[in-house]
Amino acid sequence: MAKHRLIFLYLGAILCLILICTAPAFASEADHGGRDLGALLPIWSGIPFIGILLSIALFPLLAPVFWHHNFGKISLAWSLIFAIPFMLAYSGDALHSILHVYIIDYIPFIILLGGLFTVSGGIYLRGTLAGTPVVNTALLLVGTILASLIGTTGASMLLIRPVLRVNRARKNKIHVIVFFIFLVSNIGGSLTPLGDPPLFLGFLHGVPFFWTMNLLPVMGLVSGLLLLILFLLDSVLYKREGSPRLDEQIREPLKIEGAHNFLFLAGIIGAVLLSGLWNASEFTIFGILVAWQDVVRDVLILFVGWLSWRTTPKQVREDNGFTWFPIQEVATLFFGIFMTIIPALAMLRAGEHGNLAFLVDAIKQPAHFFWAAGGLSSFLDNAPTYLTFFNLSLGRLGLTEPQASAILRGAVEGDVARQFILELKAVSVGAVFMGANSYIGNAPNFMVRSIAEENKIQMPSFFGYMMWSVGILIPLFLVVTFVFF
Question: With pLDDT > 90 as the criterion, what percentage of the chain qualifies?
Answer without folding.
Answer: 18
